[in-house]
Amino acid sequence: MFRKTPVSIGLLIVVAVQLLLAALFLGFVIVDVTTIRSRPVGYNTRELFEIFAILALVLSIAINVALIRNMLRRADAAEKGLMVARGAFQALVETEFDRWGLSRTEREVALFAIKGLSNAEIAEISQKSEGTVKSQSAAVFRKAGVQGRIGLVTHFMDEIIGDVLVTEGKPASER
Predict the structure, then answer these.
(1) Which of 141, 155, 140, 135 has its CA nearest to residue 103?
(2) How far apart are alpha carbons 55 and 49 in whole angstroms?
(3) Where is the chain membrane-spanning (predicted)?
(4) Using CA atoms, how far apart are residues 141 and 139, in angstroms rounded to an integer?
(5) pTM, entire model
(6) Which distant-in-sequence residues (6+ apart) come within 8 Å of 71 by Cβ?
(7) CA distances in angstroms from 89 to 32, 62, 65, 106, 172, listed in the order given
(8) Using an 8 Å Cβ cutoff, are 70 and 10 in contact?
(9) Per-residue 3-state assignment (H helix, E strand, C coil) for the chain
(10) Residue percentage of the chain with pLDDT more than 70
(11) What is the pLDDT of residue 134?
(12) Which of 15, 48, 74, 165 lies at 20 to 30 Å from 146 by C-alpha?
């Protein structure tokens, strides 16, 4: 259901403590309202429970704030990493397009093909005839030295992944 990380385990512990304390307070309210006990809980005992509960709730709020800040920081770092990856992919695409000598219109068609659009969809978006898109696609595939759309996408995936090999469940860096 979720990855067991120190953050997720810490969050589960905090939630468990909060639930326990909420149940404790609810129990006190039920006892007070229904007067189930003929002899009330001693003042000192009850005050100690409530002081402990309040301290634990304040501590859990502080822990929640710290965990949320940590998660927001990690999300921000992941977003920045994604932006870097997008920029690197765009640079790779431009480098390959330059190397293949693609024209501006061929670049446009190639980008749409990489995104998975059909010739009809590309023609509609770029306001060209489907025949024009088909011939430009063929030119892109010929210049790239690939058989078709799948070959074009595979070429870029191979460039991105590089020489990463997975053998027996372990990445090459761990062997």
Answers:
(1) 140
(2) 10
(3) 7-31, 51-72
(4) 6
(5) 0.54
(6) 7
(7) 65, 40, 36, 18, 23
(8) no
(9) CCCCCHHHHHHHHHHHHHHHHHHHHHHHHHHHHHCCCCCCCCHHHHHHHHHHHHHHHHHHHHHHHHHHHHHHHHHHHHHHHHHHHHHHHHHHHHHHHHHHCCCHHHHHHHHHHHCCCCHHHHHHHHCCCHHHHHHHHHHHHHHHCCCCHHHHHHHHHHHHHCCCCEECCEEHHHC
(10) 86
(11) 95
(12) 165
Specify the fold of 101-175. Arc Repressor Mutant, subunit A (1.10.10)
pLDDT of residue 112: 95
Spatial contact of 100 and 144, defined as CB atoms under 8 Å apart: yes
Question: Quick check: 175 and 167 in contact, CB under 8 A?
Answer: yes
Quick one: CA torsion of 46, 52, 56, 57, rounded to 10 degrees? 40
Sequence-distant (≥ 6) Cβ neighbours of residue 153 within 8 angstroms: 113, 114, 116
Q: What Cα–Cα distance (Å) separates residue 140 from each residue in 42, 107, 130, 166?
A: 84, 8, 15, 31
46 C-beta neighbours (distance < 10 Å), count:
14
Residues 27-37: pLDDT tens digits?
877 877 776 65
pLDDT tens-digit profile of 91-128? 889 999 999 999 999 999 999 999 999 999 999 999 99
